[in-house]
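Inputs:
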Amino acid sequence: MALSEPSASGRFGEFGGRFVPETLVPACEDLERAFRSAWGDPTFRDELDSFLADYAGRPSPLTECHRLSEDLGVRVLLKREDLNHTGSHKINNVLGQALLARRMGKKRLVAETGAGQHGVATATVAALFGMECMVYMGEVDMERQALNVFRMHLLGAEVVPALSGSRTLKDAVNEAMRDWVATVESTHYCLGSVMGPHPYPWMVREFHTVIGTEARAQCAALLDGGVPDVVAACVGGGSNAIGIFAGFADTDAELVGVEPAGGAAVGRGVPGVVHGMRSYLMQDEFGQVQEAHSISAGLDYPGVGPEHSFLSSVGRARYEQVTDAEVIDAFQLLSRTEGIIPALEPAHALAWISRDRAELAGKTVLLNLSGRGDKDVGQMMEILG
Amino acid sequence: MTPSGALDEGLAIPPAPTHHGELETALRAGRDRGRKLLVPYVTGGLGDEWVDIVRAVADAGADAIEIGVPFSDPVMDGPVIQAASEQALAGGATPVTILDRLRGIDAGVPLIVMTYYNVAFHAGHQRFASSLAAAGVSGAILPDLPLDEVGPWAVAADAADVETVMLAAPTAPDDRLPRIVARARGFVYAVGLLGVTGERDSLASSSLTIASRVKAVTDKPVLVGVGVSNAAQAVEISQVADGVVIGSALMRRVLEGEGPLGAGAFIAEIRAALDAG
């Protein structure tokens, strides 16, 4: 099955939808119309493609990991989204959304961020297109990702701490939505993952499909049979995972999303509704959303994009969990064997490959290396002493 | 296998029952007597005194009372209701404990539960609607459940005779408002401004605009909430609307330590101003 367009109400199976205050419904409808029109417009596509090539540095390479593969007994290929401008896959989506915002006549962007990668990417395109930018970030995350906060300031964005709840990504989304409710006429909410109300999960997937499309062609050139046995990616909201899954959903490749054990919405959640969508959600017996706990600020989220819930429910993708300790090991493993310091987020996917290497022995695994680890070096210095 | 082929429950909106429930009957009766309607909001489960505060605002002249059932992620609420919700949750409040207390409250006016959709969704639509009815609650407000998604909940609420209040936002285009008011039961909640709940220095001009736009398309009671902060603003907007919802202005006083007496006095002051016109 190829990944398909959601239903008229924005559903992937039973998941998705548009659960937003009435105030935001017309804005979501406008955005859906604008996206449909732009996505079918060759001029828009050409302009986006040229920014992806000349500004973001696409296509990103596919790297064969010789020493790591020998070490694990698993052939590992890396899709190098860490080499994009701003250091992660997030630039794909924000270039698309900023061009769309410009097309809609909106001159202000608001965004939420966890690890700061989406915030940095949004601040970057706001600078590029001369837009005002405000980024909401949990107070806890501002502390552990201080470097990214400074980068956003350098880029001219305002960073506002989210002080409620767990003071992480979930609360940053709440604050961004509250901002948007008040400023919807002039502001585009540049949502950073395949989550939120329709059309975001679908639109953000489409902007990241470039990852899977490139990787499919690169694998076709490199591999006998053309496709890897397994495609693996970390999942918080799930944008980098859905981007690479999109290129292989219609193949025999197994799709594996890797969640942090402390924020495993698919693995430990039940269907719920928050942040505009119905999806798997970690919640208590009364439907209160639980706080996630992960070493990785970018995956520290109790929900997940609705299409992942759908892919899990129909059995097209499976979702594994890894612990913080396993992630710390994987972070060092890739650094030492390949000379690549990964972000803590994609280190989750490698942690799964490393832990389950017996099961994967002899197979070829394509791992989406969604970001580079510079932002995490300070945190790792403290952990590793 | 395409998701598009699945039943699209998000699109089916059942028509609202034509009979008036307890809430709408009471509000219409008040309006017919020439009274401007006053609906205070009280966060359920906040501290020991919240039930006494509900009784106090009832005695002070409320026509109905919104009971907030706190949710972990209240995206339509500003700092005051957020703080009240967090405190109530930290104190152990749950939908069950709050509804248990409401069952015996005998406030003498209709009660409306204000919560977020996941609380109802997680409990199960039918089970949650029945639990409201069993606790003597007449209506429900779910601010993150827009018209397009209300269907499955509305079926259960209608069956339990719980009136689902619909919100009309300033951003709603003209062709959306008639659909919203047609589905509204109890009253139509006109959202006074672009933004979350909270006090404002002056009444937003958007309040008057949305109130008159909604009044033009329905004879159901139209109350304005979000940003209505004091007696003068309540009087001003009630020139156009049938009444007001007062939330953050009341809950700020409660958070600052004013008990049932102070809460009652604040609502009595607004009541008197509305009655004086």
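Residues 200-222 of chain A form the longest helix (23 residues). Flag for discussion at group meeting.
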